[in-house]
Amino acid sequence: MKFFIDTANLAQIKEAHELGILDGVTTNPSLMAKEGISGADNIAKHYQDICDIVDGPVSAEVLSTDFAGIIEEGQKLKALHPNIVVKVPMIKDGIKAIKWFSENNIKTNCTLVFSAGQAILAAKAGATYVSPFIGRIDDSNWDGVDLIAQIAHIYGVQQFEAKTKILAASIRTPLHIVKCAEAGADVVTCPLSSILGLLKHPLTDLGLAQFLEDAKKL
Ligand code: E4P
């Protein structure tokens, strides 16, 4: 399973990269706004800065919602760096655009996915990644991890033209990462706090303290 970080914060991207386990990055307009990035030139520069840190897929989201706009914006984003993956919302024109990008060898991440039906459409259109938002599903009283398992099952028994990868998004906790790994996610995109949360266990801390104490007797 690949690990992506879900942020536009360069310091956090560097910290995760230095751990040695980072495979890629996802961003979205809210995450970019949180970093105070605005204006086309600054947005483009920020994506390039991210690509300079991580040598892996970097999802950059289009802001257009019509077919022609998505295609134009996606091509501009792709031209910024070979590692850019064009992030496209799960809407009618988005699906048409994903099909077009797939036929033109441009990688896509179909975002805002909340059902198995949407995941089937994304795979049919040839998306490189499909992003079910599991935290937001949990917030709405459904089980986000169940959706990952359902999509993994469907993608396993069906033969879609593209080998669409399941990118579990809207991860909120370390346990989400573990459960997504069990359920068959190909990728998890997580905040830094959830990645670092995987390190934690009180018995590790107690055991290390004891070893260091006993080491003084050596
Ligand atoms: C995915 O690519 C999205 O950027 C992200 O995971 C959404 O997470 P949120 O529900 O915490 O905003």
From TrEMBL:
- Write the protein's name: Transaldolase
> Origin organism of this chain?
Chitinophaga skermanii
> What CDD domains does the entry give?
Transaldolase_FSA
Keyword annotations from UniProtKB, A to Z: Cytoplasm, Schiff base
List where in the cell it is found. Cytoplasm
Q: Which PROSITE patterns match?
A: TRANSALDOLASE_1 (PS01054)
InterPro entries this protein is in?
A: Aldolase_TIM (IPR013785), TAL/FSA (IPR001585), Transaldolase_3B/F6P_aldolase (IPR004731), Transaldolase_AS (IPR018225), TSA/FSA_arc/bac (IPR033919)
* Any one Gene Ontology BP term: ketone catabolic process
Give the UniProt entry's GO cellular component terms. cytoplasm
Molecular function (GO) terms for this protein are:
aldehyde-lyase activity
Return the Pfam families for the record: TAL_FSA
Q: Which NCBIfam families match?
A: fsa_talC_mipB
